[in-house]
Design brief:
It is a single chain. By secondary structure, the chain is α/β, with parallel strands linked by helices. It is built from six helices and five strands, in the order H-E-H-E-H-E-H-E-H-E-H. A five-stranded parallel beta sheet has the order 2-1-3-4-5, sandwiched between helices. The chain is globular and about 35 Å long. Residues about 145-155 have low confidence and may be disordered.
Length: about 160
C-alpha cells in the first residue's frame, strides 16, 4: 500500500531540465521504499529521475546509464552481503559513470573500491548531500558528500 501511494508521486520524475539520476536496488535487494522516498526528495530539488526498481541487474543499470547524460547512478542496499557478488561489475560501473551507494550494506571501503560516493541511508539527508555535492561540480570517485550537520559535534 505504501509503495503504491508513493508511486503515484513518481509519474513526472523524468521531466524537466535538472540533473539526471538513475535509482535502483542491486540484484537481490528488494527493500526500495527508502529509495523511492529519496527519489521524491531529489525530484523536489529539481532532479530528473529514472527509477529502475528492486532487484535490478547491474547490466541493466549500466545500459540505462549509457543512454544520455547521467549525473548520478544511485544504488541502495540494506542487506549485508548483497553487493559482494557484484563488486567487479560495480567497479566497472563506477569507472564509467558517477556512482553513488547508500544503505546499511555499504561501507567506506566498498565505496572506495568501486569508485563510488557513499551517502547515508536516511533519504532526506542523502538527498540534501547529493544535491549539495552536485552543486559543487560533477560527482565522481574521491568526492566526499558534505557532512550531515545534525551529527556534528556540539549539536
Amino acid at each position: 500500500l505504501i509503495r503504491r501511494r508513493l508511486g503515484a508521486f513518481t509519474l513526472t520524475w523524468g521531466g524537466g531540465r535538472g540533473p539526471r539520476a538513475i535509482l535502483a536496488c542491486p540484484p537481490g535487494e528488494l527493500h526500495d521504499v527508502a529509495l523511492i522516498c529519496f527519489g521524491l526528495l531529489l525530484r523536489r530539488s529539481g532532479w530528473r529521475i529514472s527509477y529502475l526498481g528492486q532487484d535490478t541487474p547491474i547490466d541493466a543499470i549500466a545500459q540505462a546509464a549509457a543512454v544520455g547524460r547521467v549525473d548520478a547512478v544511485v544504488l541502495a542496499a540494506t542487506r549485508t552481503g548483497v553487493l559482494d557478488p557484484v563488486r567487479a561489475a560495480l567497479a566497472q560501473l563506477g569507472e564509467r559513470h558517477p556512482l553513488v551507494l547508500a544503505g546499511p550494506a555499504v561501507t567506506d571501503a566498498l565505496a572506495t573500491e568501486v569508485h563510488a560516493v557513499r551517502l547515508p541511508f536516511d533519504p532526506a539527508t542523502a538527498a540534501q548531500q547529493l544535491t549539495a555535492l552536485r552543486r559543487r561540480g560533477p560527482i565522481g570517485p574521491g568526492r566526499v558528500a558534505p557532512p550531515d550537520p545534525s551529527t556534528s559535534a556540539g549539536c
